[in-house]
């Protein structure tokens, strides 16, 4: 009987070690984000947005012109951290942006976010090859090229926030991208 117990204990210990040493992406959920043409009505795009929850989500953006729309509904009123990282795709250089919005009955309401560069209307995103920390200007605002972006937002329970994304390659052509979004 003790040999069986030792065998069970060994198997359980091996499982525990595997869980501890497993790469973090083994626990990430993967979701494909739909592209919506710029002419899509707000209520249609928002209703069909890709839903994400707290935790890590690997997002796959299909190649195509338009906006990828993601939505997150907070389960509690508190400050949430959104981390975008690990952009990858078939192109050498990938650049894109994320914008945070609420919906009211008539239109999208943009939520400016605080970055290291100050409060900005968009969050620039890029892959590691393009992320060299240099500065660039967009719409009169200065940004840095960084591979990882952390954004903290105070959100109210049940008030859905939408994240609109768009990605391009070095030729300013739409590109398929994989990115990691972690919400804490």
Structure description:
Strands 2, 3, 5, 7, 8, 11 and 15 form a seven-stranded mixed beta sheet that branches. Strands 1-4-16-6-14 form a five-stranded mixed beta sheet, with no helix packed on it. It has one domain (24-183): Jelly Rolls (Sandwich). The protein has helices at 2-21, 42-47; strands at residues 29-33, 35-36, 50-52, 55-61, 67-72, 78-88, 94-103, 108-111, 113-115, 118-120, 123-126, 135-138, 141-144, 149-155, 161-169, 177-183. The protein contains two helices and 16 strands. The chain is mainly beta and 184 residues long. The radius of gyration is 20 Å and the shape is globular.
In short:
With 184 residues, the protein is mainly β. Helix content is 14%, strand content 48%. The protein is built from two helices and 16 strands.
Features:
single chain; 184 residues; mainly beta; Jelly Rolls; seven-stranded mixed β-sheet; five-stranded mixed β-sheet; 48% strand; globular
Q: How are the elements arranged and paired?
A:
Layout lengths: L1 H20 L7 E5 L1 E2 L5 H6 L2 E3 L2 E7 L5 E6 L5 E11 L5 E10 L4 E4 L1 E3 L2 E3 L2 E4 L8 E4 L2 E4 L4 E7 L5 E9 L7 E7 L1
Parallel strand pairs: 1-4, 3-5
Antiparallel strand pairs: 2-5, 4-16, 5-15, 6-14, 6-16, 7-8, 7-11, 7-15, 9-10, 12-13
CATH class, named Mainly Beta
Per CATH, the architecture is Sandwich
Rounded Rg: 20 Å
Secondary structure class reads: mainly beta
Q: What ranges have pLDDT less than 50 throughout 5 or more consecutive residues?
A: none
- Amino-to-carboxy terminus distance: 46 Å
Order of helices and strands: HEEHEEEEEEEEEEEEEE
CATH level-3 fold name: Jelly Rolls
Q: What fraction of residues sit in β-strands?
A: over 45%
Instruction: Enumerate how many helices there are, as a single number.
Output: 2
Query: How much helicity do the residues have?
Result: 10-25%
**pLDDT averaged over residues:** 82
* Structural domains: how many: 1
Coarse morphology = globular
Quaternary organisation: single chain
Largest sheet descriptor: 7 strands, mixed
Give the beta-strand count: 16
């Amino acid at each position: 009987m003790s040999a069986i117990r030792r065998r069970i204990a060994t198997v359980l210990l091996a499982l525990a070690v595997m869980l501890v040493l497993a790469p973090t992406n083994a626990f990430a959920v993967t979701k494909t984000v739909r592209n919506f043409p710029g002419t899509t009505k707000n209520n249609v795009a928002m209703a069909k947005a890709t839903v994400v929850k707290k935790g890590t989500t690997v997002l796959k953006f299909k190649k195509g012109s338009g906006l990828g729309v993601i939505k997150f509904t907070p389960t509690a009123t508190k400050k949430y951290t959104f981390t975008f990282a690990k952009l990858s795709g078939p192109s050498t250089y990938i650049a894109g942006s994320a914008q945070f919005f609420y919906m009211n009955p008539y239109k999208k309401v943009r939520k400016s976010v605080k970055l290291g560069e100050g409060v900005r209307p968009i969050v620039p995103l890029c892959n590691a090859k393009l992320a060299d920390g240099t500065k660039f200007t967009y719409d009169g605002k200065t940004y840095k090229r960084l591979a990882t972006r952390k954004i903290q937002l105070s959100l109210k329970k049940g008030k859905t926030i939408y994240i609109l994304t768009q990605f391009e390659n070095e030729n300013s052509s739409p590109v398929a991208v994989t990115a990691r979004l972690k919400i804490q």
